[in-house]
Amino acid sequence: MKHFLNFHLINSKKVKITLIKHELNKYYNGGLNFLVKLNSGKEQENAIHKIQNFLLVNKKEQENFDLQINVLFEDSIFKSLKTQNIVLNLKKADFHEESFRTSLLPNFFEIEFQKKIVQTIDRNYEFLHHPYMVTIKKDNVIKIYRDIPTNKEFDSILQHYFIYTFSKDEPVLKNINQFIELLNLKAKVNYLFKSQLLASYLTNTKKPILVVNIDKNYITLNVTRLGKVVDYQRLEVGTSSFIKAFLNSFNKLSKDEILSRLTYIHQTSEKDLADDLHLKQLKNGLDKLLSFLHYEINRRINEFNSKHNAKIITEIAFTGELAWLVNSLMDYFEIKSPQFNVSSIESKNDLFIQSEYNDKIINQLVYYGDKLMVDNDQVQTQTSEIEIGKASPKSFLHKLKEFLTLQKGE
Length: 410
Hints:
CATH architecture of the largest domain: 2-Layer Sandwich
Protein name: Cell division protein FtsA
Radius of gyration: 23 Å
Organism: Mycoplasmopsis glycophila
CATH topology of the largest domain: Nucleotidyltransferase, domain 5
């Protein structure tokens, strides 16, 4: 029976640990589900013993015990995080044609990829990468594929890769690797960023889609294609900043009171809010926040389209930790920008059996991580340092402040 031990790095100090088991093509909760502080002395030591003892019992009770470890990083967790794209162009004359008809060509690309990485590598950096697209050129006609086809004539083949890079000296990376090492388990380890995981929900989308994830400490505005990130941008602000702005303007209300009122506002017509001054003020603040996010998302789309000299992005998929904000933003876009197809990222995987706990992110991590291992679609090595495309935190927060200035007299 397959078992998946999952580590979700919620922030630089805390990790959520869950165990999921796989049997008869179904996934079940495996009996472990708890939070632990990294590098916390006795607390971490107790967690390690808890995991070891639990798995030891399972090994004795089950035949063919198989363990895989998944590590999920929030995109904001590494200060040194950068991204890059690499394209390998192989011409027909570079290899024997029979290689194209077999599994040898993907291996050939992997060898060439490793050579390319070594040429630009910074030894102090690690990387995660994924191939996201193959383009084949024949008689000046270019066709796009998810994987390398073995039945097409060609003049040249381009394999496109997307890469995350981050410093080996990141404290959280050292802490989680030390934690896993102290477990002393024989298992494959699969590392992923949350933005990779969110893109994997959209594996059947051939056209580029902008995936907007509004998280607690950051927002990602990533272009995805065929379930893979192809162009990355992160904003250094999230829902915690938005809520703080509301708290500063409505200091007589608690965080929970503001969140419940904002949820109510989303579910209530503007006419029904007319007699409540405080709700009207909150509604005004929410409208300013939505206007601000609408502006930033449109800016991102225009930048990407201009870069490629075409109207490429026509669809937006939203997700985030606050359902009312995601739903409000979708409604806002449908009114203000009807030219875009708008949807939300939702888990529709029925392979997971519900029981005492359910985490859609962990479920997708297990499902996608399992597929990655089967497909051998990801290799963990080190890579070069490339600047990531992201907005300046200072300028971004300044614009946020302008948009979220809530006047109580309004």
